[in-house]
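Our consortium's second objective concerns turning raw sequence data into structural hypotheses that experimental partners can test. To show how far this objective has progressed, the report includes one record in full. It was chosen at random from the queue rather than selected for favorable results. The single chain below, 178 residues long, was entered without modification.
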Amino acid sequence: MYRALLLTGVAGVGKSTVANAVGGVLTSAGHVTAVVDADMLAQFGPPPNGDLPSGRFYDELKCTNLAAVWANYQAAGARYLVVAAVIDGVAQRERYAASLAGCEIRLVRLIADKETVVSRLRRRDIGSKLEKHLRALDEPSLAPNATGVADFTVTNDRAAADVAAGILVRAGWLDRAR
């Protein structure tokens, strides 16, 4: 059986950090695991003029590339995949799921208090990118699991390895937390 864990949440919540920690926990438990940051699958631009708005273009590119990367990881022996991605709707979740055909999928929404997220963003981003992420924090659609798309929500408020182990236990993929 193949399993994919999709970690979603607002920019700065810690998706990539927790994804790497989940990959480490699974690998330490003897599971052949791949970790992918979906943003890295669409470092391309500007988008060509076409039928899709730029946001949709990048979402489609991420999913198309994810399918190809996952096929390569499967061929190399991976049974588990951990993906950090912004997935804010049922249609988008279904698109990611289609990219991971044959996988048992769990989608987890990471949350953290606004002060923590703002602090992380200020350490990481600058200029218009920072301002865009800060404005997005006030959008009601980004409230914890507002879209009902996640299987469960986890607060990212402790060491990434502890958050990762808790997620895996809750998903039923590990017997106990570290």
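The partners drew two points from this record. The first helix runs from residue 15 to 28. DSSP finds six helices and five strands in the chain. Both points have been shared with the crystallography group to help prioritize constructs.
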